[in-house]
Design goal:
The protein contains 13 helices and eight strands. It is of the alpha/beta class. It starts with a strand and ends in a 7-residue tail after the last helix.
Length: about 290
């Protein structure tokens, strides 16, 4: 298929590369000159004119940072894409913005798939993402072979915003896992348990979920190099809390985790991994950052 991919950041670039490796004719565009250079270095064709590339594509993908970027790109797609083209957005955005973007595309005869992904940039590079899709079923069936390039699991969830909501549900659980670890590890460390021994026991216990095991690799060495930053998690938690408010769901624990993430920013950890709230909890208990 002829594919144009808009937004080749840490997630978009490996996804676009997987599509090209699967034999599709892929062009890419990005507002960042640095990201365009990265894409070119990986052998991807960078479009000189995004509108022309959109017009030529059967399928347009995007991986974008926020609501405003999605609405801007959706307007470009609606203006330039051929009728019956399929717009596949993989971003984490609010449900209202997603619905507005889909309506703009539908008015122009473009099918819009909300195709969120679960996993970090390392998982994107390894083609180990979980794909959650909603939107027109026929469009999903058409692009399913492309989505399989991103990882082993794909789920079709419905005709509207179900994929956006499911991504928020998953990310709520990810954020709350970090809050759970922050409290548990701080309690153990303050009580005199060895940091490395705690991680050994935790990863061998009933609470050793895949994400806990994945985090253990870095955090057992107190390495807070980000796979997903505190600032990024604050953005997602904001979306989650807005979705809860719209549905009258009192997300009390999530609201507290949101405050802990803001505390991490105030303490200088904004660009650390979101698990840096462990350090926030430790500082509150009078523990130093170093072991």
């Amino acid at each position: 298929m002829q594919v144009h991919f808009i937004g080749v950041g840490k997630m978009g670039l490996p996804m676009a590369s997987h599509l090209a490796a699967a034999g599709h004719a892929v062009t890419v565009s990005d507002p960042s000159g640095e990201r365009r250079q990265f894409a070119q270095a990986q052998g991807l064709a960078v479009a000189d004119d995004a509108a022309s590339a959109i017009a030529a594509a059967q399928v347009i993908f995007s991986s974008l940072p926020n609501d405003a970027a999605l609405l801007n790109v959706a307007a470009q797609v609606a203006a330039a894409a051929q009728r019956e083209a399929i717009f596949v957005d993989t971003s984490t955005v609010s449900l209202p913005a997603s619905s507005e973007a889909a309506a703009r595309c539908a008015a122009a005869g473009v099918h819009c798939l909300r195709t969120t992904v679960s996993g970090n940039n390392k998982m994107a590079e390894a083609a180990q993402l979980t794909v959650m899709a909603s939107g027109p079923r026929a469009a999903y069936d058409t692009v399913l072979p492309l989505l399989r390039s991103f990882g082993p699991n794909q789920f079709y969830l419905g005709e509207a915003e179900q994929a956006r909501l499911m991504k928020l549900v998953v990310n709520l659980m990810i954020a709350q896992t970090s809050a759970m670890l922050a409290e548990a590890l701080t309690l153990g460390r303050k009580g005199g348990l060895d940091w490395h021994a705690m991680w050994q026991v935790i990863t061998a216990s009933a609470v050793a979920s895949p994400i806990v095991k994945a985090k253990a690799v870095q955090l057992s060495e107190r390495d807070f190099t980000p796979t997903f930053t505190v600032e990024q998690m604050i953005k997602d938690l904001g979306l989650i809390l807005c979705a809860g408010e719209a549905s009258h769901v009192p997300l009390l624990q999530t609201a507290m985790t949101h405050k802990l993430m803001h505390a991490a920013v105030e303490q200088g950890d904004a660009l650390d991994d979101y698990a840096a709230i462990i350090k926030v909890m430790e500082r509150g208990a009078g523990l130093p950052d170093h072991l």
